[in-house]
Amino acid sequence: HTTLEKFQESARGDLEYRQKAIDQMVKPLKESLEKVDGKIGELLERHSDDDTTVLVVSDHGARPLDGGAG
């Protein structure tokens, strides 16, 4: 193997490792959002009709900006 090929193999393995770590970190959030989505769907099926307008609003992460986004 050339030096470039060795580097590429190492980088590919590192990328796969990092992707698995990210997937594990994101998994609980994904599962939670899927549950919330299901509950919203249930509410809409039970309590809405063609004359109903439903707005889904979240204040998650809401905070004063105090002149900046950071």
Detailed description of the structure:
There is one protein chain. The chain has 1 helix and no strands. It has 70 residues and is mostly helical. The protein is elongated, with a radius of gyration of 22 Å. The N and C termini lie far apart (47 Å). The model has no long low-confidence stretch (mean pLDDT 85).
Which H/E pattern describes the elements? H
What percentage of residues falls in helices of 4 or more residues? 55-70%
Structural class: mainly alpha
Oligomer: single chain
Unreliable spans are none
Cα Rg: 22 Å
Tally of DSSP helical segments: 1
Largest sheet: none
**Coarse shape:** elongated
Q: Quote the beta fraction.
A: under 5%
Task: Average the pLDDT over all residues and give the rounded result.
Answer: 85
Instruction: Let me know the number of strands.
Output: 0
First and last CA, distance: 47 Å
Summary, kept brief:
The chain has 70 residues and is mainly alpha-helical.
What is the secondary structure topology, with strand pairs?
Blueprint: H1 3-47
Task: List descriptors.
elongated, mainly alpha, 70 residues
